[in-house]
TrEMBL record:
UniProt keyword Metal-binding present: yes
Protein species of origin: Acetonema longum DSM 6540
Family stated for the protein in its record: Belongs to the metallophosphoesterase superfamily. YfcE family.
InterPro entries: Calcineurin-like_PHP_lpxH, Metallo-depent_PP-like, Phosphodiesterase_MJ0936/Vps29
Name of protein: Phosphoesterase
Entry-linked NCBIfam families: yfcE
């Protein structure tokens, strides 16, 4: 996975330490929210939810934590009044791409902590005009991120 080739890195929480957030921020364009596993210092750096304009689209980002309903339902409910086109969420570490009432729901799973899943995973999302392509990438081993080239 070559993060320097990405226009945007989106992370839906549970970083566990500030160094991870700082490394992602240092790589360039980054959007993220805190998760229920994050300590207070990370919660001070990042919002619980955010809405990101991406060209003609609006993306909601929320970890998915809570006590009522399923993780996808909590993520959907968090943006019910916000007119978003897609929602990135996590919490369950169960990768999924589906639609719910006209909203594209994206759970990348986890590239670092697969929990009970068989594979490590992440999503590549490409937006080009009115075209959207979401690809779920699954791998037996955690993806290795290549460091940006230095001059």
């Amino acid at each position: 996975m070559q993060l320097e080739n990405m226009d945007l890195i989106i992370y839906a929480g549970d970083y566990t330490d500030c160094q991870t957030v700082e490394r992602l921020q240092d790589r360039g364009r980054f959007a993220g929210v805190w998760g229920n596993g994050d300590p207070d210092d990370i919660r001070a750096l990042l919002p619980e939810k955010t809405i990101l304009p991406l060209g003609p689209y609006r993306m909601g980002i929320f970890h998915g934590h809570g006590t009522s309903g399923s993780t996808p339902q909590r993520a959907y409910d968090m943006f019910k009044e916000d007119a978003v086109d897609m929602i990135v969420f996590g919490h369950s570490h169960q990768p999924a791409i589906f639609t719910k009432k006209g909203v594209l729901m994206l759970n990348p799973g986890s590239p670092t902590n697969k929990r009970q899943e068989r594979w490590f995973s992440y999503i590549l999302l490409e937006l080009a005009g009115s075209r959207m392509e979401a690809r779920l990438i699954m791998t037996e081993n955690p993806p290795k991120c290549q460091e940006p080239a230095t001059s």
